[in-house]
Amino acid sequence: MKNxxxxxxxxxxxxxxxxxxxxPDQDQIxxxxxxxxxxxxxxxxxGLGKPGTDSLAARGQKPAVLEExxxxxxxxxxxFVRHGVLFMPMFRKTEVSDADLDAIAAYxxxxxxx
Length: 114
Ligand code: HEC
Fold this sequence. Notes:
single chain, mainly alpha, Cytochrome Bc1 Complex, Chain D, domain 2, 6 helices, globular, binds heme C
């Protein structure tokens, strides 16, 4: 009886945690890349005069380019995008929809270790 209960709890906890570890699908990542290029690359891209990248580099963030990071989490990305930080503006849902933001988050976390 006790084992059955432990098994049930284990199954339940796997059901709850599994989606968090599931790899985002490739379509979602590609969509995120496109939306990112439109709204985020002008400040966070590579090359000269990218204020977001420059600001992060000045604070010692390595790598300073968001697309090269492996430590960003989905909730953190969503919070920064919806609220802004320093001179990064907040993005409204009429600009970056929730679906677009999901895709951006999938793109920016694509290389994270599970
Ligand atoms: C107008 C320029 C600008 C745009 C556009 C912009 N950002 Fe930012 N972003 C910044 C600045 C500036 C910071 C703060 C850098 C710092 O803390 O030094 C920042 C910080 C961030 C951070 C936090 C990084 C960290 O480690 O603290 C994330 C995540 C982020 N931006 C994601 C995005 C995403 C996703 C988009 C597109 C939807 C975007 N940003 C668009 C300028 C911008």
